[in-house]
Structure formats: structure tokens, C-alpha cells
């Protein structure tokens, strides 16, 4: 976890310092993976930190949820009053804080019985979690071929509508993949474990 986070931070700092476009570079997102791994590790080990979320009440849960908009408001005001040279660094810090918050949010959703927002009861979100690997794998393909197809056909639609079309197409591709490719392999894996 530490190595992934360190490599990501060092590469991103290097890229920002040398004005290298890094938004779509894999090394930039290793930090996200490190936070996800850390959240899984903390949940698996049930460290004392997890009990803060487990024993939390509705008020604590609400305060935790309100921390994200407060963070964005603070970052917005800091960002607006910062020289342009520091903007990429503030953007990076804001991104890291958001990723850490998401990791904590997932922990809260997994262990808190008193969470104000209970997403683990949503069948849509549970299914989305099941097909999430396909969503990750196919999003680049859907975007690339979708843009090319729209250009070839001369389709001109508002950006927001295009976003929803691509999201729906990616969701369908991931659902198809889960049903016909991933599920058979998962069943095979379960059979092999029993042997």
C-alpha cells in the first residue's frame, strides 16, 4: 500500500513540476488503489479505528456525510484565492482528500448499522458493484468507439446527453460481460475450490 501510494505521489508531483499531462496516466491512480487496499485491510483486520464507525450514531453519521460538501466548499474558496502556479497542487491535495473520504465512506457503509445513508440495501448499487470490473474494463472502449461512431454518423447532441448515452452503453456492456463471461468463470472457480 505504501509503495503504491508513494509511487503515485512521487510521479504526480514530478508530472506537475514538469508540466506533464498526467490525468490519464496509470501511475497517477495508484494512490486510489492504495486507499482501496487500505480500506479492505482495515475492514478485514477489524482494527480499533473501524469501531468508531461501528459504534457511531445517526448524528455522527450525518456529520461524516456533511464533511464532504464542507471539504469541497473550503477547497473552492482556497482554490479561488490561490495563485495559478499553486492550482495543480491544490487540485492534487483535493483529489487525495476526496479519495481518502471515499475509502472512509465505504468503510462506514460496510460496518455502520446507524448510517444515515444506507446504500448497501440498494439492489441497483449491489448489482453495479458486481459488474464494476466490467464497467472499469469497458469504459475506454465504449468512449473511444462511441465518439468515433458519433462522428461517422454525424450525430451531434449536447454533452450531457452524450454522457448519459455512454454511461448506459457502458453499463449494458458490463452487464452482458458479467452474465456471459464473468459468471461462468466464477462458477468454474467455485467448482474448482470444492475439488
Strand content: under 5%
Elements, N to C (H/E): HHHHHHHH
The general outline is globular
- Structural class call reads mainly alpha
How much is the radius of gyration in Å? Answer: 20 Å
Poorly predicted runs are none
Q: Share of helix among residues? A: over 70%
Describe the structure.
With 195 residues, the chain is mostly helical. 78% of the residues lie in helices and 0% in strands. It is globular and about 45 Å long. The mean pLDDT is 89.
What key phrases describe this protein's structure?
195 residues; 2 domains
Structure summarized in a few sentences:
Helix content is 78%, strand content 0%. It has helices at 2-17, 30-45, 48-54, 58-80, 87-111, 123-130, 132-153, 159-194. The chain is globular and about 45 Å long.
List the helices and strands and how they pair.
Layout: H1 2-17, H2 30-45, H3 48-54, H4 58-80, H5 87-111, H6 123-130, H7 132-153, H8 159-194
